[in-house]
Structure formats: C-alpha cells, structure tokens
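Task: sequence design from structure.
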C-alpha cells in the first residue's frame, strides 16, 4: 500500500511540474526535478510489476533530460548523467524484448558519452561509463546467443576501462 501511495505522490508531483513548465518551459530546476520524479516513478512501477508503465515513465524522463541538456549543451557532468538514464532505458527495453529499440538506445547512450568525453576529455568517469554500456551490450548479445558480438563488445569495454584508469 505504501508504494502505491508513493506512486500517487510522484504522479501528483509530475503533474505539478508540468503545470509549472507551462509558465516557464525552460526552467532548468523544474525540468531536472520532473526528470528525477519520472525516474523514481519508473522504479516504483517496476517494483510493482507495471513494466509497460515503467517503460513509459522512463521514456518521458529521457525526453525531459534531453530537453534539459539541449539547453545546457556544455554540461559534461549533466551529459554523463543523461547517458546513464538512457542506458537504463536501453536495459529496460532489452528486458522487455524490444531488441531493435534496445540496441538503438544503447547506441544513443554511447553517443551521449562521446559528447561528454569531447567536452571533458580528462574526466575519466565518462570513459568508465562508456565502458559499462559496452558491457551491457555484450551481456545483451549473450542473452541473444550472439557470442562473437558479445566478445567484441567486452573487448571494447576493456579498452575504455583501460583509458579510464
């Protein structure tokens, strides 16, 4: 019952953030809070086996963060966080057997990390985050019994972990 109440609380908060954004559509603080609320709602929905709703909430969070970072394209730390949320979406898609969409979303997260690395080439955290995407991709290939592609992705992950150390 408590999780349901929390879901309702996040749903109300999301409605309020959306109302606020009608008056100030580019308010970064409100956009970030909306994205965070959507992420948390997605997590709670997953815990209650509401997979379709969780997927939709996470897609909305990604769209919100995309908007945030279109307004702040030079924020390497923000881009790194955005990349993590996109990777989380790819993992959720892969678990729900949206194979093509999952691969495209993994590619999107790699592109985001590339942009973050370009902005801050000495921030080795983004290299490690990119390596983690390659591991997720490799694991996904393994689940599809595509061993050659899995090995290639693991090798790419190792290369990026080596750079980050």
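Answer:
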């Amino acid at each position: 019952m408590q999780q349901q109440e929390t879901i309702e609380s996040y749903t109300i908060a999301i409605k309020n953030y959306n109302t606020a954004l009608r008056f100030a559509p580019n308010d970064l603080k409100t956009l970030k809070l909306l994205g965070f609320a959507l992420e948390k709602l997605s997590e709670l929905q997953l815990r209650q086996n509401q997979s379709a709703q969780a997927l939709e909430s996470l897609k909305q969070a990604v769209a919100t963060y995309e908007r945030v970072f279109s307004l702040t394209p030079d924020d390497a730390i923000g881009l790194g966080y955005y990349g993590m949320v996109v990777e989380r979406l790819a993992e959720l898609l892969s678990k729900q057997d949206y194979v093509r969409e999952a691969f495209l979303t993994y590619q999107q997260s790699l592109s985001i990390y590339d942009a973050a690395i370009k902005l801050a080439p000495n921030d080795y955290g983004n290299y490690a985050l990119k390596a983690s995407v390659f591991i997720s991709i490799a694991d996904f290939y393994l689940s599809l019994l595509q061993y050659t592609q899995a090995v290639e992705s693991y090798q790419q992950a190792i290369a990026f972990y080596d750079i980050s150390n």
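Residues 1-72 form one domain.
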